[in-house]
Amino acid sequence: MQKYNISRSKYFYAIGLSYKKADAEIRGHFSLDDESKLRLLAQAKTNNIESLVVTSTCNRTEIYGFAEHPYQLIQLLCDNTRGTVEEFREVAYIYKNKEAISHMFRVGSGLDSQILGDFEIISQLKQSTKLSRKHGLLNHFTERLVNAVIQASKRIKTETNISSGATSVSFASVQYILNSIEQVSNKNILLFGTGKIGRNTCENLVKHTKNEHITLINRTKTKAEQIAGKFNLIVKDYANLQEEISNSDILIVATGAQRPTIDKHIIQSEKPLLILDLSIPKNVDANVEELDNVSLVHLDHLSQITDQTLEARKAQIPMAEAILDEVNLEFSEWLETRKFAPTIKALKHKLSDFAAAELEVQRKKHADFNETQAAIISNNIIQKITNHFAHHLKDDDVPTDESLELIKKVFQLEPSTKHV
User: Fold this and answer.
1) pTM for the whole thing?
2) What's the mean per-residue pLDDT of the chain?
3) Of 55, 82, 102, 234, which is the most buried if we count CB atoms within 10 A?
4) In the prediction, which pLDDT does 164 show?
5) pLDDT in tens, 274-291
6) Catalytic residue among 14, 15, 58, 274
7) Which residue ranges make up the annotated binding site for substrate?
């Protein structure tokens, strides 16, 4: 990317792994919680990484950043998770430059989501970008790219019907409950964990089950109380978890912990219990399936549920891809202008020097010299000349490198090597 004058590194990479090749267990090895994200960013800063955005959701963990070699980014990920380089090589992907840019567009637009049209990832991308900016790890290129992806995501959401119907894991979990459990409105439902997926699931539960027996538990009780207040739900202390599980017919786990928070030993009741684990890493130990009364469903299974709305959304893919192509092209055109931005800047400075010298001569010659008017005229002329050169360099039929060399030679330019 050096030729675009946007980074001291040659390459922009997207490295990561997703639901497509990595199962929930492997994705759990590479999952990043808030603390490990901060450690990764600090290490990147120490390693002189210029710009970096890190996302980690239930479906994927990714790093977008500048490096001379992708291993620099892979090592950052492995150093701050339980994953190993060997595991990464087996299931991961590495995209470079334009492929990396296109990948971010598809991810941010919901076209690469586990459930087609799931737009929850775009808010994750926004938050990750904000965090990188806060830690001085966001250059102009990455910020502009993320903004372009956000623009594409908004257009797809408003100009197509790809997000109609069940578009998220949280909705799919409620849909599964409705399809699997009779008389849902009379069942006792316990939601353990009130992070983003937990909050969204809670909202969908209230909206679609008409259930008045929903209880929330979170390690930080105040967070659960904030959500419960919106929907008039019951909140219990974390210390009451085992008792509340015994009272429940349905347990939804979305705690976001790095180790299982539920196992067979905490389940004391023998009545039928449906457990939905919406967490990566898995927060429900597989040993619960040793209990005859327990049915366990993980989000990877939920995402495979198909319905009529999914088929309808598939028909919207060509329209969504056309929007992506349009916004991506606009971004690519901007990127191409970065090739000659330093030369145009240097040309403008050279012309300004010519104008200043000539204005000084005219000032001495004419006692009634109009300083303000002369400055306006000269600035307008300089702007028109540089605009003409810029339009010439944007022309696809013009060999840009040759034109740049000619401009530099004619005007004896020494463009700044500072990255713009």
Assistant:
1) 0.70
2) 88
3) 55
4) 63
5) 999 988 889 999 999 999
6) 58
7) 57-60, 113, 118-120, 124
Binding residues for NADP(+) are: 193-198
Q: Do domains 2-165 and 169-306 have the same CATH topology?
A: no
Could you tell me the pLDDT band of residue 399, with boundaries at 50, 70 and 90? confident
Q: What's the mean pLDDT in 53-61?
A: 92
Torsion, Cα of 283, 256, 53, 122 (10° steps): 100
- Of the candidates 281, 237, 285, the residue with the CA atom closest to the CA atom of residue 257: 281
339-366 mean pLDDT: 85
CATH for the 169-306 domain, from 3.20.20.70, 3.40.50.970, 3.40.1280.10, 3.40.50.720 = 3.40.50.720
Longest dimension (CA), the chain: 103
Which range has highest mean pLDDT (163-167, 230-234, 365-369, 398-402)? 365-369
Domain boundaries, the chain: 2-165, 169-306, 340-411
Catalytic residue list contains 202: no
